[in-house]
Task: structure prediction
Amino acid sequence: MASVAFLGLGVMGYPMAAHLKNKGGHEVTVYNRTEEKAKKWATEHGGATASTPAQAARDKDFVFSCVGNDDDLRSITLGDGAAFSAMKQGAVFIDNTTASAEVARELANAAQSLGFGFLDAPVSGGQAGAKNGVQSRSSNPTLEWSG
Result:
């Protein structure tokens, strides 16, 4: 069982985090801009909540994110109170946001300089795919790895 954080509990992230906890059996801590949503998730699935991305990411083996866009992604990863400031050496940040290649390269370089991995892994299949835990067969994701 891995120690996992999930940042962003929108229509895709909410069920994805639940699959990590309920199907994967991982210890999951969640962060969401709307704290009530994080508390609801934790009540439903038995995980923990954090009040900042850094608190969620601290000492985790894997940190997942699924947020709206490049700016949202930068806000949860870079700077004070953000995930990258608290991630341990050797951990892996897995971004499931459909974001630009530019931000993926930027974050991969930042992660490498801090001693942990970065995986750009945008998801497909929409809300139904996230709820059902499946990916569209027609997707062709690009992956960038730094580690």
Notes: The chain has a mean pLDDT of 89. The CA atoms of residues 50 and 56 lie 5 Å apart. The two ends are 21 Å apart (CA to CA). The longest strand covers residues 3-7.
